[in-house]
Amino acid sequence: MNVTMYIDKYKNARYNFFKWRYETNLVYKLILALSFACLTGLLAQFRFYLPNNPAVPITGQTFAVLLAGVILGTWGGISQIMYVGLGAAGMPWFTNFQGGIGALTGSTGGYIIGFILTAFFLGYFTDRYIRSRNFRNMLPLMLFANFVLIYIPGLLVLYYWWTTFIGSIGIVELVSIGMIPFIAGDILKVVAAAAVAKGVTPKTTYGAKIGT
Fold first, then answer.
1. Spatial contact of 120 and 127, defined as CB atoms under 8 Å apart
2. Could you read off the pLDDT tens digit of each residue along the chain, which spans 212 residues?
């Protein structure tokens, strides 16, 4: 079997999977969503430190969030609702194996809520626009989702938490604490997720689309 035949088999397999998950029944969609909620919880525990910033860890959490929208479509958003809801109920799968409502009412709660917005946003474009599935178009979508849909609610909640429990904080200091240390790691994760999205998504329609 030559390389072309292997490539064709792979393209058929990815098309069949996306068509199946788009058309499958509610039970299977819930199972897929729960699977990505578990993946998000798992990658939340993977932490590494930048050489010039040993105090602030970068986690794999957002990588799972980005892929949830790409692979599950709008059901990626449901997977993050499960992640947030079950975590708030006590499932210890937030970063550092934390669980409970305190993780959402604390300083990082806004970022976690942003995961839901991000997965719905990317899922909408993946399911409805074929052109969004190549690297060139997916990359800016993921950059917007990561740095707007996650960081804006994240910084707003961090600001509220800081001024409530610690004291006043300026915008520059807020961004220096809640965003700048994570930019390099986030860009790497976004580029990697966009590359994966290009490879795993079919470039033909598998459901109702409004655009190419």
1. no
2. 588 999 999 999 999 999 999 999 999 999 999 999 999 999 999 877 656 554 446 788 999 999 999 999 999 999 999 999 999 999 999 988 989 998 888 888 999 999 999 999 999 999 999 999 999 999 999 999 999 999 999 999 999 999 999 999 999 999 998 899 889 889 999 999 999 999 999 999 997 666 67
- Domains located in the chain, CATH noted: 27-200 (1.10.1760.20)
Whether 32 contacts 67, CB under 8 Å: no
- Lookup: tokens for 99: 């669980």
Q: Are 32 and 21 in contact (CB under 8 A)?
A: yes
Chain centroid, CA 78 distance in Å: 12
Give the single-character DSSP code of 202.
-
- Beta partners for 53? 50
Amino acid at 176: S
Task: State the alpha helices, DSSP H only, in the chain.
Answer: 3-23, 26-43, 61-72, 75-88, 102-105, 109-128, 135-144, 151-165, 171-178, 183-200
3-state secondary structure of 208: coil
User: 3-state DSSP call for residue 94?
Assistant: strand
